[in-house]
């Protein structure tokens, strides 16, 4: 009987230890006192996009999912299929109705979207913007590429390719703010840092492969000495590549494009496009989820200091860019 | 005996469950497969500063410590006592010699410091810069206030205080980049957005209370209609406050200062300083630790994709600013 008692006591002791240990880790009343950063699998964070089939969003979603796996929370992906304000408002309304733990949204810039975002924020749902800014929204942070700096990076790469001398042209989307910024960063840097390179023309490629192909043909006809073209988006990059192939100017005109869709990467492998500016799409999704998690769990200075006036999350994150060339292009194909 | 066997089996079963459960949580071979974000208490992250007694660093260190507590890792604080390049190099060398898990440094801008930082990076120690940039360093990210935007915020606050009309002056530190940026953000915004406000003069307060007090006296003598002064650092703010008290112009000249040291907060309570621009010092430390932890544990896209060309951390984080006024000043006193 004595032996049995010892065994019972050991059994009870181990059990108590087990429960205590489990309790300690699983039920932090206050996340600041928890050991490690971890949520509940029932917490659902939603990523909302427009033109929801775009390759670019897939990389952002991968980052969002990777962060969720680390933090033991769930994610959903919802998007407007088109570039359509009303469709995105509807999608966002549906997401809000489910009261998720947080929303990361890349939004069409419009007052209606800003109003709907503010409805979520006012209702206590954490919201973070990524990739594109929405003036007038009450979202807590903005995670994106600094487009002016991306243009600066493109300018330095162009100067490297041209041995710091020559004539260059820019093909862009004239009415879009982020493309204006890319163009300004490029042109300012060429003018400021490379006296022997001249920006001879800036034309509108309309974000379209064929329009950009045509524009590139005209540039090469009007400026026969042009030795570089910077194009601020990927469709145009492919069109310009086609024009250069047609004119048999591969290697004579260096093309720097933007982003890393498959057709761009293929043209880099082929040597038609010399370089492309890759954005930190994965980081946009990854850090958006971290930020939303911090808001959801009150893991901010405001909470510690009990100071409603003090800002909580960082205001802006520049996820940076990298330059894709033939040397590293293999790394950028989807795994 | 049968009963005893059952008890033994239960005992062994519970024990196995306990060990399995503990093992699952404590020894993730790969952090990406772990449940929750958590390090080891033996991992030591070091914050390195100059003028190590400054109040501002205390807030940053608090954020650094709060993040470490969440992630179950350790921190140390080391700093050069003076604004002295050689002293900071020595401190940094000592920190590197201990091979810490990561270094967050606010550094004096000098090639020697950049070289020492690069020694750490080349030796495999993650390094993140906060508050001040060091051109030429290989640090993985930079976390700071966007000083131009801070100047923009100050301009809008000044316009609000002056009902969008009047003469204003700026007192700054002429040779410091971050102060030039604050001044430019302020002046550009006033010129661009407020046609009835005029920036009448920009003078050097030398970062000094007495020099700034004297400068403010001269401004009020030379421009008797001046109704606002923006000062880009805290010592000058106190000096200007003293000049205004001396001239009995409290309320007639609105002062907007920078940062939240105790003398500034006291003058806001007193009504001599109308507002101050508070930086996100806590967030600088907090997110620096998160970034270092991510590098130390290979929690970056590069690691997932096995793609050495792809950027890992976001390049830049703007921690943002908030405006301190009489209405919320109580929240900013050290707790």
TrEMBL record, chains A, B:
GO terms for cellular component: cell envelope. Residues 47-293 form the Periplasmic binding protein domain. Keywords: Signal. It comes from Evansella caseinilytica. SUPFAM superfamilies: Periplasmic binding protein-like I. PANTHER family: D-ALLOSE-BINDING PERIPLASMIC PROTEIN-RELATED. Its main location: other. GO terms for molecular function: carbohydrate binding. It comes from the Bacteria. Belongs to the bacterial solute-binding protein 2 family. It is found in: Cell envelope. The lineage of its organism: Bacteria, Bacillati, Bacillota, Bacilli, Bacillales. This is Ribose transport system substrate-binding protein.
